[in-house]
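User: quick one, fold this
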Amino acid sequence: MEMESPNQYNNRRERGMMTNDETFPSLTSSSTEHLNGVVSQEDVEMVVDDAFDPLPHEENHYVTSEDVQMKEREIELKDVVKEGHDKADPSQFELLRVLGEGSFGKVFLVRKIVGKDAGTLYAMKVLKKATLKVKDRVRSTNERNILADVGHAFIVKLHYAFQTPGKLYLILDFLRGGDLFTRLSKEVMFTEEDVKFYLAELALALNHLHSIGIIYRDLKPENILLDQDGHIALTDFGLSKQPLDGSKTYSFCGTVEYMAPEVVNRKGHHFAADWWSFGVLMYEMLTGNLPFHGATRQETMNQILKTKLGMPDNLSPEAQSLLRVLFKRNPQNRLGAGPSGIEDIKKHEFFATIDWNALVAKQVRPPFIPAVSRDDAFYFDTEYTSKSPRDSPGGPVSASAHEIFRGFSFVAPGLLDDAGMPLSNGSAGAGALPPKLPFTNEIPGVKPGAFCDEYNLMQELGRGTFSICRLCEHKTTRKQYAAKIISKSGHDCREEVEILLRYGNHPNIVTLFGVHEDNSYVYLVMELLKGGELLDRILTIQRMSETEASAVLRTVVSAVSYLHEHGVVHRDLKPSNLLYASVQQTPESLKLCDLGFAKQLRADNGLLMTPCYTANFVAPEVLKRQGYDLACDIWSLGVLLYIMLEGKTPFASTPNDSPEMILNRIGSGQIDTDSGRWKTVSSEVKELLRHMLHIVPQKRPTAAQILRHPWLWQPPSDANRPSADVQYIQHQQNMASGVGVQVRDQTAALRGAVNATFRAIASPQAANVGPVGMSELAKRRARDKSANSQV
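Assistant:
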């Protein structure tokens, strides 16, 4: 399947939208794309809608007296109150950020500051009554009425609606994932499995609307949003219609490319019009192109009415079949329009693998998790979060006025000079680095500069090749975090940031709360893990019981399996990158940290690919490398398991062992699991360990397979072994006694051997490690032996 690049896709969509009504200006807020709320770019601008314009003379009889009366009457808007809550008003919401704006209103990210739901983030749609035309007032009322009546898993929820003398307010879900196509066209490639998931959720949403008598009429990618888990939510009901007594409606409304033929020719339409638009969406998601798209609006309309649509050969027979029955120009013959309604769509072979009950319960995992920010208020610009609750959206300062003074503050903290790294670009030092282009400008929620305006930096927690980790404290909340400060001159951290934003919701992966960036550094604000490194615990108790080791491995493998399932490889799994969140050092509190070497599977054009894409659309060499990286993670987990059970590394004896020495031992494929302490270790874990450390990557188990291994869930009893607490007490006594120096030396030696092992794994020579039988010498001897046997 030939896919467009993100730029090609966006350019084409911009050209497509240019044919629509240009009377209403588009959003001007630059933040809309990066911090999407419930309202998309075209939620606050009207597209083609001639509901009150004179129709062509031959069809004037379709304009009813009701339409004329609607032009003249005053619009009534009743309040909506969230169930179990008090009536709302503008003073109850703190303005955080502008999500979008148009000529007649704005959309704000707000936080409720009073009531039972205090602290909850919402999207507040504010409409100025004075600038609304009569038809816009009707739309606003329709949207409020529909949202108040609709409750569905895949439809945005209206929580409050109220008004002041000059404005209308709709308080809606704040959906962090943004709209489906804007987000995914930049980040991920679609497979038929992906499309099937989104269409199935969308079909349930449309069916619910139809079941309560509502025609949606504005189905397009911009109106399908993603929540933080990747499920869809249908939004923007300004053009929706509830016909009386099942009659047709005759408005010419919507976005031309998605209109059904009966909408275009104005002969009246009903629910079947939504299923045509459903087909247009399906075609666009599968091919990256619109099925009907001319150089002008009139040409597009002619194509919808007359042009025969060809089916791309690379679509499956099931997909082609569904498109053909959706693109029936006679609405009575269109799938979904019959008496069985959505049941006919559910039964179509394209959806054969969908469990519809699990889908509506949100028990089916979405194919893609958006890279979204956490819901902490300080993650948004301080120019908004610092505002007083009295500064309601009734008279907000313009976003452009704030932009004038962005970056005005001057800070000279000398963040990293004591670590031998360059001074911050905010300092007056002559050695400051020249400005660099933003690393993270395509990632939502990243805040430029001014890190020290929000945080106090404290002592060092650790350091790496291109970064240093320091304790920091938020100036307002006084909450402490770990700040990973990365030098942009030596490392591109965009991949790490995206992975943490997208997958940091796993309980055993460190949580990223915020990202700041200036000319020289990127600052990752992460949760503070107070329990210390896993390696420190191993060194303290010398070796773990099988009970504790199995619990630790189960926790770590669950996180690794989660990453692997989403096409992410860690590539730097080692005990020092596993930290306890709890000071009690319980295995369940372990978290995977430092994803600086992690990678996401991407296609040649740079787009991310969901796991199901690999089988059909990835070059063999990419697949081979991806499989190798996955297997390398498993091998590192095997080394970790060995260290936990034995108290030393399998391949390095001292910190001074060279990478060549270590890799030669790895290449031999020989590990000792029989002598010494191993005599008391169960055969089940020995077998698992040998498979994880197999020299042939293809023969190692997957993370998912390891997670199902019985030893992880039912390890043998450790009744005859001293507990970890007893071992810890013995360690403390040894440290306090005359043998303390010897124990410290042994601990330092083991730490050095562990570090030497993982340095060797990361070295360039590691790529050439393989079984002895695969070496050139072994192959040459085999050829010589074969030749001699034939003589």
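User: anything notable?
Assistant: The first strand starts at residue 93 and ends at 102.
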